[in-house]
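Feature request disguised as a bug report, sorry. It would help if multi-protein outputs had a clear separator. Right now it looks like this:
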Amino acid sequence: MVKLTEQNREQYAESILQALNSEELQQFRQLFLELHPQDQHDFFLELEESQREKVYEYLSPEEFAEIFQELELEEQKDIIEELDQTYAQDMFGEMSTDDVADFLGEVPESKAETVLEGLEDDDAKDIRELLSYEEETAGAIMTKEFMNIPADAALRDVIELLRQEGPDAETIYYLYVVNAKQELAGVVSLRDLITSDPNKKVEEVMSTRVVSVNTGDDQEDVANLIKKYDFLAVPVVTTNNTLVGIITVDDIIDVIEEEATEDIGEFVASRGATDVNLTSFTAAKKRAPWIIMLMFFGLITAGVIGQFEETLERIVLLAVFIPLIMDSAGNTGTQSLAVMVRSLATGTFEKKGMFNTVRREFGTGLFLGLFCAITLMILIPIVYRDVMLAFIVGLSLFLTLSIATIVGAVVPVLINKLKLDPAIASGPFITTINDVLGLMIYFSIATALLQYL
């Protein structure tokens, strides 16, 4: 297998492309199939439709299945329209059931049913089972291609079984042991299997301390569990402990990417609109509700300023520092929000506890406020020649940043307590709240000390 480097990537790709365009079947297959599957995927995406049609002709459905599985969903939808129906059906038959289920879950039900009817009964049954689970649960992302072994089997028989069924399994580094009722009873690592006496029974070498997940568990919880234990795979069981599948670390990497993308969308108030493949209209439609909601929050900010119109009329110079107060409050609150959401996601919040975590953020806010206040109390008298103005702005910023960190830390915790994703306490949402609080603090202090200005 060839793994392309930056130095030889273009040259090697040019050789494959030349063989494809010259219709040199054997030369193309020899060069192309030597590539790493991911490099095959990258090369395929650069082809024009006429060139892709030759690829379908030169590669078997089994070989092309490796490429199709690596494509993004939208790319799969486009490519499937180019494939001959028989070719596509044979390709689905060669794919992992979980990858087929991921694709069929996103296409019209009638089309999915047509594909299922053309598959072998066992594969179709497994895919229907995967499609029956709620999205973003362990059951929905597990694979059915795994090996389970009986507890009373001899190790030598298990090794022979590996030779026969191992090539079709998602992974064989862990072998899960079941009893007569197909309940999860233990686990045997490949190392234990190879290094133990082949005459021993599986139950003599297996570990009964098995960490598993339930079909209904959230995919993010599964990701955290695999990260915690450094697993390559984790078994999935039903409520009665029946082993029904496994989740491998490569699927969890996809989950982590998906969850991170979702959190980023929440942070910037554009959930569902971070995909660059969306049209401008679709992206705008998804972002519009957030923007409109934040626009109304902006009216609240304007209302706060309006309440202190008299103060502003008397000391117009106060308006100069409104952006400074608002931006500093929003930025500090967003920083605390990011820290807290990350803490909740990684589990460190539970270890430290709410009091210690919030206290730490409040302390951070105090120091940030102090640093900024001192800086302004030095600069403002130099620029504006007004010590009292410097005191008002500095004190306001000190209090604002201290409170902003509390808001940024507490709001996501409260949302998490409501069993919601804490990331929905988005940056713009927290920023608007802190803007309002910052302005109220600023103008309240300015109004109280107006006589000294």
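(second protein starts here, but nothing in the output says so)
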Amino acid sequence: MTEVAAPTDVVVVGAGPVGLMLAGELARAGVGVVVLERRDVPSTASRASTLHARTMEIFDSRGLLPRFGSPPAEPRGHFGGIPMDLTLPSSHPGQWKVPQTSTESVLQQWALALGADIRRGVEVVELVQEPGQARVRTVGRAGHAEIPASYVVACDGEDSTVRHLLRADFPGQDAVRELLRADVAGIEVRDRRFERLETGLAIAARRADGVTRVMVHSFAARVRDRDDEPTFEEISRAWKQVTGEDISAGTPLWTNGFGDAARQLTRYRHGRVLFAGDAAHRQMPIGGQALNLGLQDAFNLGWKLAAVIRGDHGPELLDSYHDERHPVGAAVLSNIRAQALLLLGGPEVEPLRAVLAEMIGHEEVRARLAGLISGLDIRYATGGGKDPLLGARLPPSTLRVAQDSVTTAALLRRGGGLLLNLGTGCGAVTELTGWRDHVTAVSARAEPGSVLDVPAEAVLVRPDGHVAWTSGTEFSLTEALTRWFGPPTDRL
């Protein structure tokens, strides 16, 4: 017998970092959200451990950073194993080392505190779209159930059940190379950072608790068809083949392998079903880009989905999610494929690595690659002007508001959109009538030397921190407000 549960606004499938980020964003906006996760308990395997500058800015704009404590920061990253400085203007430049287990824990506690309903040990087995709603059928410890929802968002990883149920077009390339990795206790090997040896690549990093993460790739190896993770025996054998060292006496805490497959959904929206994170795009997790890309998908989608469900905006707003995030995903997949070739290719790629290493020494090239990796270069197409702020994220700055110094991140924590009046005599605030429930007007002055010390007298910022309009654009503030926040209301 199938129990029909109470309807909810949104069902999120998957309680990894992406699903939990989206759940928190929706609950924060007053939207009912149920998260379904087939695992009974959170994973203890810390897969991705790198948070980039843009993700740290996002967490800051939600007041989440104190919950992460004081994670180590590292200005240097790499492109395909070639060292490079990732530093760009940001409140949190470089990259920050946070175990995925910690990221999931912070986001879960945040989402739960805001009212999200997280149900574990529940597997989705069927999804039906009907006029006005979708129905998710599940199986779990309590038996079969059905949950009606206005929308469903698949955040269930690269082997997404929802994607398979919908038979969504997922073109791309299968993996031909694989990197094996394990967290191992009780071994003594020296730290290595992308050490290319005669027969393969070796990486090792010893943690403060004495556990060493090893990663290895044999140039001669090809991806194996496997249903489970690689065994420690397989990893230790590959490690010995490449390095000559024997780690087989160690105690494996976790093993994993990932290939260089590259696939992306043709569409991120299928009616009342949307996709985010690895469910929407599959890529090799080089430099933590996969995790950060997925978190930023959720951040882009959350406020838009909430606005549609609350009735502030029509469902066409959800099409902008695909229009904005699909090109970003394609760009990340492209740079990851290039990095995979540089990282896992054999001796034949050495000339290319030498040329790129020289080019990275030029600041313009370095900054371009750092922008790609960090997510700080993202600029959504809005049309109507060449103002460099338009479509980009609002640069983190300190503003003078009345007698106080306030960061732009703190202003974004208020929720909704933000209209910054930065000049004198700017009449933009008078156009805000009808949107005051969704946009807060703030009169401010940029501190001397601030990146916001620009000619624009007013700036409209979306809830995700991206600039939707400036006083220098070719379209009006009213047009921008209507586009992103829906038609005006009669409420003042």
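Even a blank line would do. Unrelated, but nice: The longest strand covers residues 143-154.
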